[in-house]
Amino acid sequence: MTTVGVDVGGTKVLAGVVTASGAVTRVVRRSTPGRLASVEATEDAVVAAVAEAADGAELEAVGISAAGFVDAAAERVAFAPHLPWRGEPVRARLEERCGAPVVLDNDANAAAWAEYTLGAARDADSAVVVTLGTGIGGGLVLGGRLHRGFGGMAGEFGHAQLVPDGRPCECGGRGCWEQYTSGNALLRHARAGLGTSAGPLAALCDGDPARMTGPMVTRAAAGGDDVARHAFEEVGTWLGVGVANLVAALDPEVVVVGGGLVDSGDLLLTPARAALRRSLVGSAYRTVPVLRPAALGPEAGMVGAALLAGRPAGR
Amino acid sequence: MTTVGVDVGGTKVLAGVVTASGAVTRVVRRSTPGRLASVEATEDAVVAAVAEAADGAELEAVGISAAGFVDAAAERVAFAPHLPWRGEPVRARLEERCGAPVVLDNDANAAAWAEYTLGAARDADSAVVVTLGTGIGGGLVLGGRLHRGFGGMAGEFGHAQLVPDGRPCECGGRGCWEQYTSGNALLRHARAGLGTSAGPLAALCDGDPARMTGPMVTRAAAGGDDVARHAFEEVGTWLGVGVANLVAALDPEVVVVGGGLVDSGDLLLTPARAALRRSLVGSAYRTVPVLRPAALGPEAGMVGAALLAGRPAGR
Predict the structure, then answer these.
(1) Distance (Å, rounded) from C-alpha A117 to C-alpha A133?
(2) Residue B305: left if φ>0, alpha if ψ -120 to 50, beta else—which one?
């Protein structure tokens, strides 16, 4: 009997066989048909990836981690910016097609559950998980339970307002946290700072801000480039300020930071830890939660979905 | 057998007999000896109030709601700005002196539990409770459990930073939410707006901002005074912005607003609801939590403490 976890992202479907202890024994990748594809084509890709991962073994359960909003009942993908689902009963449909129990959640929740169960927060009772991608994904595990919220919308703290009348956000609001701390924010800071710099970052992008990418900024910062390091300091400081607000409200044992930016390690986390300590009320007189890099990398959503499918009590 | 709830505030001790269904059958009041009194005198006052409330009946349990920081184990009052406790094992000491099981928590948590169990959130699965006093007190009940946090510090969202480099706060930080939404903030807005106004508020305070009090602002606003109404709009708007951030993170079913300011009703809550809807990401496409006034008034802490003592499973 095999449990398969599937992470359905905007560009790829990642499916893997995950053991009860969270080990990944086989992984397959397929490209996602995309936002303009039919719902059926997307579901075909998921079902095919599950079958390929299972490789003929009998399915015990399937966990689906979707890059979109999943409803309170964890039955439907209400909306997904990069996928065609618009309220379809995804869980039930995939359960019928896979012939095994299916559990559905959004990718940030699935990743948070994986980090809590096996990863950077595995020794903690409560954890806030902040995933820095293009924007910010979030998940909360409180007292051993994934906190999904009344409408399944908990963890959307990327759109908390950190700066009144601040930068406009794609969500229609202004001053959202993810405008200051995310892959996009890093790139914006670095582009704005490039000027006439002749450092490694300028060399990587031929002095053209438009050609600059996130990985270039990370590489240049690791190599000591001042513009790139300053961009990490900005993003890290705002990360710490936003985390301090979450800690003031929730007082978790651990805060886990995931996503590609975390590969830069202390470049991001040192200023974040300093800002957290500075911004958190009474930090000299209380336990300041540890700010840890995520441990499971880009497979966290897939692994977490499989773990949720195997132990739905976590819900 | 009688359960007594005690609210130990900066100026008074309120003790009451509370039935299992939350009815208050007898209340006594004593003044609190104050911050400079001895720990023993404070505990004497609590014990005497408990005995007077019980009136000879055998004690089943005592719940203590304290205006201070209570540790993670709910054993000690770590610090209380208006009371002499500084880390004393208050729960065990009062248990010994009362001769009955004692449960201890901070006043905001106790009030949140009361509103959740019997008050404005009694039909909800999860609630965020915001109490507006001099500052902001907060409590979270998530999935039927009081969320106290790893160090007992959850709910301190009054010190979330809402405005970068904003108003200095007594906590040492800047731009804390309670600098914009609280009894003090209301008074500051009204004083700043008084100018040469000849309206009802100016009449109440003889045109002298220093003589203005919170209740004057509430009375004047109810009577249509422009300066007072504008102050409520400011405070209400910031209330809604801060609540939107909590909702983005937690997605509770209900948000309860308590404290004296709530007596002003829609003067405060109408601008708060508008700002919540404006600030909350995707509010047109999701369930926006109801923002309700607290139902239990100033006895909420006392009642909640008694309920926690009677049903410690809520912890």
Answers:
(1) 22
(2) alpha
CA angle A243, A245, A247 (to 5 degrees): 70
Residue B134: closest CA among B166, B169, B163: B169
Instruction: State the smallest CA–CA distance between residue A64 and chain B in angstroms.
Output: 22
CA–CA min distance A155, chain B (Å): 5
The token pair at B29 is: 């009041």
Contact B136, B176 (CB under 8 A): no
Structure token digits, residue A278: 């500075």
Q: What is the pLDDT of residues B25-48, one digit of tens each?
A: 999 999 988 778 899 999 999 999
Are B149 and A251 a contacting pair at CB < 8 A? yes
A126, A155, A279 ranked by CB distance to B150: nearest: A126
Q: Taking a C-beta distance cutoff of 8 angstroms, is the pair B228, B201 a contact?
A: yes
Measured at the CA of B48, the angle between CA B43 and CA B51, to 5 degrees, comes to: 130
What pLDDT, on the 0 to 100 scale, is given for residue B313?
A: 45
Domains and CATH numbers, chain B: 2-114+299-314 (3.30.420.40), 124-295 (3.30.420.40)
Q: How far is B49 from chain A (nearest CA, A)?
A: 31
Q: Quick check: B150 and A125 CB within 8 A?
A: yes
Helix extents (H) in B99-142: 107-117
For residue A180, give the nearest of A162, A192, A164, A194 by alpha carbon.
Answer: A162
Burial of B11 (0-12, 13-18, 19+ CB in 10 A): exposed
pTM: 0.94
Chain A hits for B248, CB-CB cut-off 8 Å, are: 156-157, 159-160
**Which segments in chain B show pLDDT lower than 50?**
313-314
Contact B146, B106 (CB under 8 A): no
SS3 (DSSP) at A287: coil
- Identify any residues that bridge with B136 across adjacent strands, giving them in sequence order: B132
CA distance A70 to A112: 15
ipTM score: 0.93
Its sign, for the CA torsion A19, A20, A23, A29, is positive
Question: Tell me, what DSSP letter sits at residue A130?
Answer: E
